[in-house]
Amino acid sequence: MTLITLSGKEYQRLLEGVHIALHPGGLQRAQALLWLSAGEDATEVAERLFVAPRSVDCWANRLHQRPSLTRSVRHSYGPRSGPPAPCR
């Protein structure tokens, strides 16, 4: 199970992200992180969003690996010049 802890500010930003998501992937990531913070299982979240459980784990890891970046940068796809980098 991938459990994450969000600060009040992170939680509010993710809620805002759900309401103003311009890209479906951004909406999925925000929803997944909110559900994980509520204690839901990563596998169930992945099934609900029709993504691989590994994707959900990657999103959760990315949230806390780069805390100095803004939310929009941490959760965006970013520029793509080739295949996606493996999740660490």
Spell out the key features of this protein.
88 residues; mainly alpha; 5 helices; 0% strand; globular
Topology of this protein?
Elements: H1 8-20, H2 24-37, H3 42-49, H4 53-65, H5 71-75
Helix pairs in contact: 1-2, 2-3, 3-4
Cα shape: globular
Give unreliable regions as ranges.
none
Strands, count: 0
Helix and strand succession?
HHHHH
Q: Averaged pLDDT, please?
A: 78
Q: What is the total number of structural domains?
A: 1
What proportion strand? under 5%
- How does the major sheet shape up? none
Q: What is the count of helical runs?
A: 5
Structural class, by secondary structure, is mainly alpha
N-end to C-end Cα span: 17 Å
Helix proportion: 55-70%
Report Rg: 12 Å
How would you explain this protein's 3D organization?
There is one protein chain. The model has no long low-confidence stretch (mean pLDDT 78). This protein has 88 residues and is mainly α. It has helices at residues 8-20, 24-37, 42-49, 53-65, 71-75.
Can you give me a brief rundown of this structure?
With 88 residues, the protein is an all-alpha fold. Helices cover 60% and strands 0% of the residues.
